[in-house]
């Protein structure tokens, strides 16, 4: 007995993503000043929009997040001699590339020629080709309910909310394939709450001004910490949405929730502005307006970094150093504490060194993989490692010199009872900067340097010793 054809949907089924959304993000990333063009194209119909996007963006189908459970099911059916069809509302340009890459399909039917092949249009095409109940269909969305009604067997993959129950009500459900990942854990990972440790820099001004015992200041600092963290998390979401393809080419970043398809891109497009709104509204209502202003500068600079600055040699590391320093400035405004020349100068050089550490670690991974070309999404070559280490270590040592000069400042003498004790902090800082660079050179730096320092016992001991020295000086 001849088996009926198995028809497989692409977006959300074979693929743990949506090519329309992905192509839209790819277009906006490379055409930021033509942001309204897709809306104009949409006025001529969804099929026209998909065609324009497919013509103007190139997606690497070899790194897309395919559902391996679905591929395994298809391969099993192929071994039985079954005809496999790819039928998708995505544009034919992408669908053909996917089919050519996977080598799983006998025929491909997709959006083209002004016809958006979704919902009832897809159903009518399949019924025309195979007849009523003449095929099995594998899908995931509400639009697929039309097709399951006409199919002999309905296979459901990671269904949208409410779809599984409606599909089962049709009485012809076969396989149900779902992911078991916890959405809560995925969002914790995506918002990168562990990266909030970098926002502890907000408390530097209160420590430097010797007002850590002021409960009101500390409470304001905690509030600022939360809202700054939410703003940063919003940026992380946006950054990962814009960097989907670059992340998928990275040995570690390919496992991020959006890049891997574990979280839907649509949910990210909703979450980013929602989290950002909470951050700015809360900051505006509960903290000085200057803090909200600095928060806005941080957001704009971070988005600019994600969009283009991170691909510019030297501009990227200087921007990273500025983003660290902005945290200290934001803390000063949140707590109404005056900034000092020495604090800003020291932070700029030490964070420039750490920014070079971050870039060096990425290039080291590329060199170990045998790559010689410019790293994807960056402006550096693996051959730049020696120059980066030279500049980075120099920046770290300059920060030590700034600390030494600070000791001789008149205001320092007035602020500390025993300012000469601070000299002991110089060799401590020299040790830490040198150790960080040695570890990075050995390929042992796998985190953001600030996150590394929070986890590293030697760094914690060094930081504690640093604090004790300043306490004795005070």
Task: Please characterize this protein's 3D structure.
By secondary structure, the protein is of the alpha/beta class. Among the domains are: 6-177, HAD superfamily/HAD-like (Rossmann fold, 3-Layer(aba) Sandwich); 183-339, Tetracycline Repressor, domain 2 (Orthogonal Bundle). It has 22 helices and 6 strands. It has helices spanning 19-30, 37-42, 46-56, 68-79, 92-102, 119-130, 144-150, 163-169, 183-190, 204-208, 215-242, 244-248, 257-260, 265-286, 289-307, 315-334, 341-368, 385-407, 410-415, 425-441, 449-455, 457-473, and strands at 6-8, 84-91, 107-111, 136-139, 153-157, 173-177. The protein has a 6-stranded parallel β-sheet, sandwiched between helices. Strand 4, helix 7 (144-150) and strand 5 form a beta-alpha-beta unit. The longest helix is centred in the middle third of the chain and has 28 residues, at 215-242. The termini are far apart. The model has no long low-confidence stretch (mean pLDDT 89).
């Amino acid at each position: 007995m001849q088996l009926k054809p198995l028809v497989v949907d692409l977006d959300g089924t074979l693929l743990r993503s949506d090519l329309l959304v992905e192509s839209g993000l790819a277009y906006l990333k490379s055409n930021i000043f033509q942001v309204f063009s897709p809306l104009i194209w949409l006025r001529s119909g969804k099929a026209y929009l998909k065609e324009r996007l497919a013509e103007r963006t190139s997606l690497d189908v070899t790194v897309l997040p395919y559902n391996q459970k679905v591929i395994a099911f298809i391969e099993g059916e192929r071994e039985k001699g079954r005809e496999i069809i790819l039928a998708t509302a995505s544009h034919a340009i992408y669908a053909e590339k996917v089919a050519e890459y996977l080598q799983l399909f006998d025929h491909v039917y997709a959006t083209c020629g002004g016809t958006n092949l979704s919902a009832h249009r897809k159903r009518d095409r399949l019924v025309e080709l195979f007849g009523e109940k003449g095929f099995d269909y594998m899908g995931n969305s509400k639009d697929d309910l039309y097709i399951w009604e006409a199919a002999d067997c309905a296979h459901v993959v990671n269904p949208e909310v409410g779809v599984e129950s409606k599909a089962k009500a049709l009485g012809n459900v076969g396989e149900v394939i779902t992911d078991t990942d916890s959405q809560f854990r995925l969002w914790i990972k995506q918002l990168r709450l562990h990266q909030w440790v970098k926002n502890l820099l907000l408390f530097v001004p209160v420590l430097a001004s010797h007002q850590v015992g002021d409960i009101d200041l500390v409470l304001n600092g905690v509030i600022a910490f939360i809202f700054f963290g939410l703003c940063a998390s919003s940026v992380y979401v946006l950054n990962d949405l814009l960097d989907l393809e670059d992340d998928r080419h990275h040995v570690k970043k390919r496992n991020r929730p959006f890049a891997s398809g574990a979280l839907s891109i649509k949910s990210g497009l909703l979450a980013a502005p929602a989290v950002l709104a909470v951050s700015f509204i809360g900051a505006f209502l509960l903290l000085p307006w200057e803090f909200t202003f600095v928060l806005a500068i941080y957001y704009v600079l971070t988005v600019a970094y994600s969009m283009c600055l991170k691909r510019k040699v030297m501009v990227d590391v200087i921007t990273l150093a500025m983003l660290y320093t902005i945290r200290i400035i934001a803390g000063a405004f949140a707590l109404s504490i005056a900034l000092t020349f020495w604090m800003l100068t020291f932070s700029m050089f030490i964070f420039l060194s750490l920014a070079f550490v971050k870039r060096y670690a990425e290039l080291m991974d590329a060199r170990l993989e045998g790559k010689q070309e410019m790293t994807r999404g960056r402006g550096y070559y693996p051959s730049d490692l020696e120059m980066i280490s030279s500049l980075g270590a120099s920046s770290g040592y300059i920060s030590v010199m700034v600390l030494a000069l600070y000791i001789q400042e008149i205001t320092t003498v007035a602020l500390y009872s025993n300012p000469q004790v601070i000299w002991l902090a110089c060799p401590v800082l020299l040790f830490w900067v040198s150790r960080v660079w040695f570890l990075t050179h050995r390929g042992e730096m796998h985190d953001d340097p600030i996150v590394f320092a929070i986890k590293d016992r030697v760094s914690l001991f060094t930081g504690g010793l640093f604090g004790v020295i300043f306490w004795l000086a005070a």
